[in-house]
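A student in our group prepared the protein record below, which I am reviewing. What it holds is a sequence and that sequence's fold in token form. My question to you is simply how this chain folds and whether the tokens agree. Do not assume that whoever made the record got everything right. I have pasted the whole thing underneath without changing anything:
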Amino acid sequence: MADVDEFLASVLPVTTVSRREAGEWNVVHRHIDPLPGSASARAQLDRMIDERT
């Protein structure tokens, strides 16, 4: 594991949904996808496939 002082730059797909309420914009949902092909994305896909079988 990297030291806490070490930062890694990443690009992640992010979706943010906003809604205008009482004249102000508010974030109502934010979703960040893992990078395609990453271990976390692969683990999620494997789990979803296992749940379907």
Q: What stands out?
A: The chain has one domain: 14-52.
